[in-house]
Write a structure and sequence with these properties.
With 323 residues, the protein is α/β, with parallel strands linked by helices. Helices cover 39% and strands 13% of the residues. It is built from 11 helices and 10 strands. The strands form 2 sheets. Strands 1-2-3-6-7-8-9-10 form an 8-stranded parallel β-barrel, surrounded by 4 helices. A two-stranded antiparallel ribbon has the order 4-5. It is globular, with a radius of gyration of 20 Å.
Length: 323
């Protein structure tokens, strides 16, 4: 596997991340119960057993309960904090009273958000903080002030973004003294625009592709880690019943199963290994909280698909030959 760009900032970080979106129960105000604590403990233990030491949060996940229950895991496991890498995200605000859902990269909201994140997790610092979704009203200088304060007060060590294209990253980076370390975006075997953008250059068949040209190349050139959310495609190719789905999905699922048998690994490992084979060195974020599936995902670190195997899955997933 290629070396992760993130390792220059966080040596020893695992090639896979565990996404904590599903921890803490539902997206409601119900209290955290004993079953949610047990579920979180089992998921974290499974991730660690699978060699995953990077844990990805966001302040909105299950309305803050994901961070809260993870904080309870940390309190129950003294010393664990110093053995893992913690990342969280901020910038999304839900609708409230007469106000709509919105994004907020203001200095005050970023600082307030981080204080809440640290309190819920019960930790003194984050290894990395990502801005969750682009705020059209972003003032880069204001973001820079917030980041400087968080770094100076030892609350956050590194910063990144999520769901941004290269021009937005470049615009923000121009005001920051330290490099952004990550960009978490939707890339998977089911969401192919990140690849189609490149192979459809100059072709009218690519007119509906929705991915900003050059984003992957920019991130690689500048050492920005591409993290993939939705990397398992919600189990589409690794266990879900797809008998009623279109032919290309059924064919891709069969190809994944065939390669899993050939390599002696889980189907999840093939799906993630396909992402990790890309030269940009993608770090998949595993969203399942099922311990069995988490362990199955951990097998991806030992998979290196050949060029021919990689293209077999790509062509199957797109459902038609390359141009």
């Amino acid at each position: 596997m290629p070396t992760l760009p993130l390792e220059q900032h966080l040596p020893g970080v695992s090639p896979l991340a565990f996404g904590c979106m599903g921890l803490g129960g539902g997206w409601n105000r119900d209290p955290i119960g004993a079953e949610h604590r047990r579920e979180a403990l089992e998921a974290v233990d499974a991730a660690l057993e699978a060699g995953i030491n990077f844990f990805d949060h966001a302040d909105i996940y299950t309305l803050g309960k994901a961070e809260q229950v993870f904080g309870e895991v940390l309190r129950e496991r003294p010393g664990l904090r110093e053995e893992i890498y913690l990342q969280s995200k901020c910038g999304i605000r839900f609708a409230e009273a007469e106000l709509p859902g919105r994004y907020d990269f203001s200095r005050d909201w970023i600082l307030q958000s981080v204080d809440g994140i640290l309190q819920r997790l019960g930790v003194e610092y984050l290894d990395s903080l990502l801005l969750h979704r682009p705020d059209p009203l972003m003032e880069p200088e204001e973001v820079a002030e917030a980041f400087a304060h968080l770094r100076d007060t030892d609350k956050v060590r590194h910063f990144g973004v999520s769901n941004m294209q290269l021009h937005q990253i470049q615009f923000l980076q121009a005001s920051l003294p330290a490099p952004l370390v990550a960009n978490q975006i939707s890339v998977s075997l089911a969401e192919l625009d990140w690849l189609e953008e490149g192979v459809m250059v100059g072709s009218p068949l690519g007119k509906d592709v929705n991915f900003t040209a050059g984003t992957l190349q920019y991130c690689r050139l500048h050492g920005i880690q591409i993290q993939s959310w939705g990397s398992l495609a919600q189990g589409l190719y690794s266990g879900r019943d797809v008998s009623d789905r279109e032919d290309r999905i059924q064919d891709t699922a069969r190809q994944v199963a065939r390669l899993a048998e050939r390599h002696g690994v889980s189907r999840e490992a093939i799906v993630l290994g396909w992402l990790m084979r890309h030269p940009v060195s993608i770090q998949p974020v595993v969203g399942s909280i099922n311990p069995t599936r988490i362990r199955a995902c951990g097998e991806a670190s030992g998979v290196t698909l050949s060029r021919e195997e990689w293209y077999t899955l790509y062509v199957a997933a797109r459902g038609q030959p390359l141009p």
